[in-house]
Specification:
This protein is of the alpha+beta class. It contains two helices and three strands. The chain has helices at about 5-10, 30-35; strands at about 25-30, 40, 55. The longest helix is centred in the N-terminal third of the chain and has 6 residues, at about 5-10.
Length: about 70
């Protein structure tokens, strides 16, 4: 078996589809954040502790759920 046939026989990777922050149901996007291409992640934001997590719209994480 030569190199190229061995390369073509490698199985595909088992990966999960990516959900960008701009498409996530945990993202809070208003007109100001949309103009700046930002999103407030409600999954990791804790208002009582003063923690706000602001993400770019094209960022992603492993907790993303599509709207």
């Amino acid at each position: 078996m030569d190199f190229y046939s061995a390369l073509w026989n490698v199985p595909a990777a088992d990966v999960a589809p990516v959900v960008r922050c701009g498409e996530c149901k945990h993202a809070y996007i208003n007109s100001f954040s949309a103009a700046a291409e930002r999103a407030l992640c409600l999954r990791f934001t804790n208002i009582t502790d003063g923690i706000q997590v602001v993400m770019d719209s094209d960022d992603f994480c492993s907790y993303g759920d599509r709207r």
